[in-house]
Design goal:
By secondary structure, the chain is an alpha/beta fold. It contains 14 helices and 11 strands. Helices cover about 45% and strands about 15% of the residues.
Amino acid sequence: MDLRREQDPHDLSRWRDSAFTLEEQVSRVVIGQSRVIRLLTIAVFARGHVLLEGDVGVGKTTLLRAMARAIGGEFERIEGTVDLMPSDLLYHARLDEHGKPRVDAGPLVRHDGELAIFFFNEINRARPQVHSLLLRLMAERSVTAFNREIHFPHLQVFADRNQVEREETFELPAAARDRFFMEVSMGVPEEEPLQRALAFDPHFHDIDSLVAEVTPNVIDHTALAEVARAIQLSVRASPAIQAYTTALWAAIRAPHRHDIRLADVDAERLISGGASPRGISYLVRAARVRAWLDGRDMLVPEDLREVFREVMKHRIFLDPVYELRRAELVGALCDAVFKSVAAP
């Protein structure tokens, strides 16, 4: 069943209902992840790419497959492997039935400009050369193949990363990570009834059947870019909120200047860079979508705080001496910034 209706991209009330339908469809098959699903919904309506990370087997792939099915449009998926090359995304060389060489379009270009969702599974298994191509794809929504430039006006990239294994993996460079609108962490549901359901209910053991339960095409993905622009224009930021946002930005860039101290850390040395203007603009974009989903046309501090970590943490670069403690220190730094900067 196709739930899409002819909708005016500026009829934001009906689009909000569609966003809730999207969440409801995904929540039926991926249980105990309401906050993660809300963050992905925010990214969809802000037109941002998402990197989902977490331990092996927590359901990252299932969630992204369910999200892609609900959004609809042309879909491609590729598995990150150590021998994957950039050309593998663009074309496929083979021998035809007559034994003659033939070159076919690869997963990125076979749908031409109609590709809507590109899902990169275990992205950190791919080599840096592949990450470079992905960087252009995410930044410009275009690639060059078969002597022409192909544009993807509706494209959204979903990727997941295996945080456990370290052998035959390649960390994403800072430039590629910065193109992800959000990095979202996904873990095991904490509620015991949900843990029991995941362990004992056969309903959750057949992933293909589970994803097939999601109603496809619940929104018109071709209108999302225009809807996203309408959302950004509809949600206002007061002068006080603007000042609060820039104060958060200043504190995360130079915590020592704002009397922020962390245990066993040289505050003046902690931050080596990051939290760029692009990052802070992404923060505001995400916060506006959150406000819209809550039915408001004005930003409040909680909108910014609720999405701050997912939008900003991968844009905070630590001094190498502290990098091994990244997960601990970045979280503690965000908490300290929220306590240091007074909300209006």
